[in-house]
Design goal:
- The complex is a heterodimer of chains A (about 60) and B (about 160).
- In chain A, about 55% of the residues lie in helices and about 5% in strands.
- Chain A contains 5 helices and 2 strands; from the N terminus they run E-H-H-H-H-H-E.
- By secondary structure, chain B is α+β, with helices and mostly antiparallel strands.
- In chain B, strands 1-2 form a two-stranded antiparallel sheet.
- In chain B, helix 1 (about 10-30) runs antiparallel to helix 2, helix 2 (about 70-90) runs parallel beside helix 4 (about 125-160) and helix 3 (about 95-125) packs antiparallel against helix 4.
- The longest helix of chain B is centred in the C-terminal third of the chain and has 34 residues, at about 125-160.
- Chain B starts with 9 loop residues before the first helix and ends with a helix.
- The chains are: A mainly alpha (about 60), B alpha+beta (about 160).
- The interface of A and B includes residues 20 and 38 of A.
Chain lengths: ~60, ~160
Amino acid sequence: MKNTVKKYRVIAEMTQQDLAQAISVSRQTIHAIESGKYVPSTELALKIAREFSTKVEELFQLDD
Amino acid sequence: METRFLLPHRAKTMGWLIFIPSLLLGVIQFFSTYEPKWLDAEVPALFYTDWLLADKGERFLFFTLIQNNLADEICALLLLIGGLLLVFAREVHEDEMIMKIRLESMLWSARVNGIVILFCIIFIYDITFYYVMVLNLFLLFFLFIGRFEWALRSLRRESE
């Protein structure tokens, strides 16, 4: 699973800590998601998408 | 994320405070079989095997009172309470990834514990098997705590 969370976060000028606080998770979780080590639940993915005002499909894509 | 059956984070500190001393006491007690006289007491037993009464046909006793030293019971109970507090204490930032690590650690410890029991059944016999099984009572806790703490530390190190 690929993701563009880091790209969207940088565009939004947010730190990992900012995003973590906004969606009520730890900074380590954001780091793990961005580095592809953890695939979030649907609920968390929807929260991240809402934070960046985008669709989940824009943030997460299946590997080819 | 809903995290049912977890205790507040302060239970972790309390868990370590109970777990470490009782582990040390347990190890000392296990290897020295030291039993202070003041802990001798008459205790209720649901089932008891009295080898001295074997000839009289009263070897197996049910719902009876027996004389026992409470040192090992106290040690085991404290170790169990400390272990349970550590296993079920919430992390400061308890989220779905921590829960995933928690469940993975529990699965890993159950698997390793099973392999250890299998190994003991095949290669350890008689009274030594009994001693190993006493240690095995707490092995699941040791494995889980070790694996979970290691995973959390790795996660923190990687994200720094």
